[in-house]
Amino acid sequence: MQAVKVSAGFKKMVLATILFPTILLILGLYHGVLQAYYRGGLINDTSFLGLEYYQGLTLHGVINAIVFTTMVIVGFGHALIAYFLRKEPNLKVAWLSFWLMVIGVVMAAWAILSGKATVLYTFYAPLKAHTLFYLGATLLIIGSWIAFFSWIPVLRQWRRENPGKPVPLAVIGIFSTFIVWFVATLGVAAEVLIYLLPWSMGLMKEVDVPMTRLLFWFFGHPLVYFWLLPAYIMYYVFMPKLAGGKLYSEDAARLVFLLFIVFSIPVGVHHQFTEPGLSQSTKMLHSLLTFAVAIPSLITAFTLAASLEYAGRQRGATSLLGWMFKQPFFDKNNWFFAYLIVGLIIFIIGGFTGVVNASYNVNLIVHNTAWIPGHFHMTVGAPVALALMAIVLYLYSQLTGKEIKLKGLALLVPYLWALGLIFMSFAMMYNGVVHGEPRRTNLGLTYLNPDSPLFKPEWVPYGKMVIIGGTLLGIAAIIYFLVLFATMFSKATSEGGTISFPVAESLHGFSGARWLDSFKPWIIILVVLIVLAYGLAIADVLSSTYGTSPGYSPVSPVPIQ
Amino acid sequence: MDRSEKMALSLGILFLVILFGAVLYAKSQAGVDLPGCVTDVEPYSEGKVDTLGDKRFQIQYVARMWLFMPSEVRLPVGSEVDIYVVSHDVVHGLHIVGTDINLMAVPGAIAYKRYKFDKPGVYYVRCHEYCGVGHQNMEAKIIVE
Ligand code: HEM
Ligand SMILES: [Cu+2]
Ligand SMILES: [Cu+2]
Fold first, then answer.
1. Among protein residues, the one whose CA lies closest to atom 7 of ligand 1
2. Model's pTM, two decimal places?
3. Which chain B residues are within 8 Å of A545, Cβ to Cβ?
4. By three-state DSSP, how is residue B48 classified?
């Protein structure tokens, strides 16, 4: 497909949507490294340079996992729509979406930075944050919805104008992503609008904690697929092409995206396995449905491996596994491939450790230990983060017409990132399971502080590994921003204002099956599963929990009046 | 779907079935189960230990910012203990390191699990959910001797 020339307004809007969160990411990553230092026992204090541990952890979670992901995914979505459907979404609506998100982020950032919302990115009640924190989160979500709504008429029109033509795979992908997102965020919107916002404004004195948790995790699990699916789009649509091959099977790819719509929402209780107020049978059902999500992941593993094998054989690999090594791992002009493949390899571990978490009673060994952040940095912290960091560079370069500078360094980033991550995540996973190292904890004050009565000397070696890992990750991040800024401050070498993606052909093309070209049947199954899985969960909560709670500030055991 | 695709998918599903089978086996045969709904216990606000019989105990934990009550419990080896936890304020966690006691203390609900302490030693009872600025101080002990 030819490159598409976009309007000046559209170019500006996409650039703003991807650059704003990327600049914020600097702050989020900065505190990631600091967390590694506190948790490694290097900093034995409540705060560093004016930022308190849990305040910084709130920033880290909110910026990295919510703001950076959501906004870059929206920007990427705009670009996919314009390129694959050959028509730009309504620009005014897109700007409205952008400004709502920015205003929301500024509100929430103000609340966090002024110490009025140290509630972590899960904002579990009855810890109470400033109203602007909840309002900001709401605006961010509504802004992202509006972007999605601006794509729907474009797809409708495209279908009318191209009767009989299948919707391009990448568009199936991004629509699946946002259907998951829209349905998921209904849960958190309900949590915020019905409970937290009125409560934080003083309109409601007390809050129903178990119910807010249920609504939060209705959102919290599919959130992870919202992060992951854009990376999947890059893996399926771009990576085979970047590797010099073809997508093994387009049917498989379509099925995967559509299956994620079905299985992602009704499984949130797997984050609540160790909680009271939910029955064992509800938990078992959610565990089983979570296992079902492993099926699209298995199809993905096969299809992507087969696509890469094809590419490897094109490049002359002959032996059974030789294709694995015949990939353009170290070609600096193909840096994009490196970001994707490195993330994908790490995701294999991230995926398996995820199956551990989802396995009903096995969860008792890992729940809320450092294993969990160890696990999810291998899902969101590498595959998703690297894919999104790459797409920011890629789109920036195309839209501005500037060549990526320091390509050798750009190529180094994913490898260094992976190395750091492996140190950090393995240490946390091991010490979490073996010694019960807790997550979300300023270890530097007690468990890894030799002056504290709670000091645990046997944790020290793992703490050191976390420090090494965090440092490597920090260096990788600095290099990434060096590349981005060097590119920004360079002269354009072409006119820019275009978008083109490396789109792989498929080896086994689309069969044309109607159910693989339509969202409707999948949404219907989704609704049925939600009613079943969450009907049971709500019934549990209503029948086995009692009372409501006043709000608390994180600094005092006395309720807020 | 071609042959290799079918084979890969079947193997994958077989693998999942085996894993899930193991989970079900552990649940039904070895009795490793998750906590569920508790409706037959009155909400309480004092932490305490009760003796229910020979080597049978009940600990009612209260988690609060930023300590557990009771903070230290001594038990004879081989004790079978009913462990309850409620929260007095915000959400806390209760993880007895080295055991499968891993519970959330959620305001408005009572968490329960049973455990048999067969090995002597010091068991750390640790809060593993962020509960405010003192979260990293929240550790209690069970001493089994
Ligand atoms: C420089 C790279 C990074 C480092 C060194 C780092 C380090 C850490 C550490 C040590 C924790 C555990 C804190 C605790 O539980 O007390 C953590 C938590 C977390 N990280 Fe990162 N991280 C990095 C990048 C990322 C990225 C790119 C993402 C997502 C896009 C991410 C998402 C998260 C989330 C969601 C949490 C959990 C926060 C919570 O429990 O409230 N991190 N990170
Ligand atoms: Cu989940
Ligand atoms: Cu705590």
1. A32
2. 0.96
3. 106, 108-109
4. strand
